[in-house]
Amino acid sequence: MNKKRDKLTVIYDILGIIRDHHNSMKLTPLLRSANLSSSSFAYYYADLQSKEFVKEIIDNDGHKYVTLTDKGFKYLEKFKLISGFIKEFEL
């Protein structure tokens, strides 16, 4: 069965990938890991930036990395809590 992810799940997946890579990841590997088309990824990434869930940092060598903000970490917490609630009550 081919089940599409909803927007909240895609956001959770992207943020989780960044967190799981020690909260620092280059954009191209993130795109590949997110399992989205480049246009879909661009849409979600712009949304995450505008909502301040992620931010870009540039190291001393000029390499750009994506990291989570406190708001991004909080989203991961709340999503997991809500998902647990839904599963517990079989909703």
Describe the protein's architecture and organization:
- The protein is mainly alpha-helical.
- The chain has one domain (7-85): Orthogonal Bundle (Arc Repressor Mutant, subunit A), CATH 1.10.10.
- 59% of the residues lie in helices and 11% in strands.
- The protein contains four helices and two strands, in the order H-H-H-E-E-H.
- The protein has helices at residues 7-20, 27-34, 38-50, 70-88; strands at 54-58, 64-68.
- It has a two-stranded antiparallel sheet with strand order 1-2.
- Strand 1 (54-58) and strand 2 form a beta hairpin.
- Helix 1 packs across helix 4 (70-88).
- The longest helix has 19 residues, at 70-88.
- It starts with 6 loop residues before the first helix and ends with a helix.
- The model has no long low-confidence stretch (mean pLDDT 94).
